[in-house]
Amino acid sequence: MPIAKFPRATEPLWHEWERKTLKCGLRHTVYAVNGDQYTGEWLNNLKHGRGTQVWKRTGAIYSGDWKFGKRDGYGSYSIPDTVTKEYKNVYTGWWKNDKKCGFGMKFYPGGECYEGEWRDGLRSGWGQMRYQDGSVYEGQWLADRPNGQGMLRLPNENRYEGSWKDGKKHGPGKFFYLDKGQLFEGIWAADIPKCGTVIDFGRDKAPAPTQYPIPKV
């Protein structure tokens, strides 16, 4: 007895239309309802690969790597100057899950600059911060603050080397008063020296040495 043949079930036509409308692999430019613009690669209607995003309200631009709709990989973020309208770099480095993560460099208003490691969008790890007044901190960071071992060099070349906690000198450390030719070595607590010893250090080369040397014990 011959086997009856039934026509093969075909998938709904709208499935094929959906596949054709999915942006995948190729570069496309898409405008959001609020005016934001993205030009780059896609995967299943998500920004994925290399691309550039422009935010209409602020004029900010991100150009770099994307992963499933979020900044992920290497890229740079820039904003227009409020006066000249020229773009200035704010951050260049690595991203993960739409946040700064890994090694990167950030430029702050007033000329301050941080170069180092990031985690979850915050300075964490080892890094160097150049402040507006000319001071430089280099050392360990945690949750956007100096934390661990680090050195702070002041504009007059005086410097602190030692332990930090929550952005303040905390624990054992040394403060070199090179302008006076002295060295304080002791213990700090929340930026305040609690106990220690002071000795002459390079007093013969100090620009403003103390009137009398510290007698040796």
Automatic annotation (TrEMBL):
Q: What is this protein called?
A: MORN repeat-containing protein 3
Q: Which organism does this record belong to?
A: Lophotis ruficrista
Which InterPro entries does the record cross-reference, listed alphabetically?
Answer: MORN (IPR003409), MORN3 (IPR052472)
What is the role of this chain?
A: Assembles a suppression complex (suppresome) by tethering SIRT1 and MDM2 to regulate composite modifications of p53/TP53. Confers both deacetylation-mediated functional inactivation, by SIRT1, and ubiquitination-dependent degradation, by MDM2, of p53/TP53, promoting a proliferative and cell survival behaviors. May play a role in the regulation of spermatogenesis.
UniProt keyword terms in alphabetical order = Cytoplasmic vesicle, Repeat
What is one Pfam family matched by this protein?
A: MORN
Q: Name one GO cellular component term.
A: acrosomal vesicle
Q: Which domain of life is it from?
A: Eukaryota
The answer on whether this UniProt entry bears the keyword Magnesium reads no
Question: What subcellular locations does the record give?
Answer: Cytoplasmic vesicle, Secretory vesicle, Acrosome
Q: What gene does the UniProt entry assign to this protein?
A: Morn3
